């Protein structure tokens, strides 16, 4: 069995789409106006984004992007900080990891 897709409800589809493409290399598969976008990772998993007025995920909800090395985690962290995101630096927890609040109202974990 293979996971086919995950849908995230977001307040700003365009901003969430651009964020995921810019920092995590997702590819745009299609979109409908400003209310829906389908993104794909290198393994063919689809992440869909749907527009909603209010987004209220539980405090611990997040999606994660695993990296091949701690250096790659540090590189993504530096790019995000340079682009104005206010985030705590990576730390050793269950992995070398940090979290960032993505545009659109959801949290992303980056880890190696």
TrEMBL record:
<dbReference type="InterPro" id="IPR037523">
    <property type="entry name" value="VOC_core"/>
</dbReference>
<feature type="domain" description="VOC">
    <location>
        <begin position="2"/>
        <end position="112"/>
    </location>
</feature>
<protein>
    <submittedName>
        <fullName>VOC family protein</fullName>
    </submittedName>
</protein>
<dbReference type="Pfam" id="PF00903">
    <property type="entry name" value="Glyoxalase"/>
</dbReference>
<dbReference type="InterPro" id="IPR004360">
    <property type="entry name" value="Glyas_Fos-R_dOase_dom"/>
</dbReference>
<dbReference type="InterPro" id="IPR051332">
    <property type="entry name" value="Fosfomycin_Res_Enzymes"/>
</dbReference>
<dbReference type="InterPro" id="IPR029068">
    <property type="entry name" value="Glyas_Bleomycin-R_OHBP_Dase"/>
</dbReference>
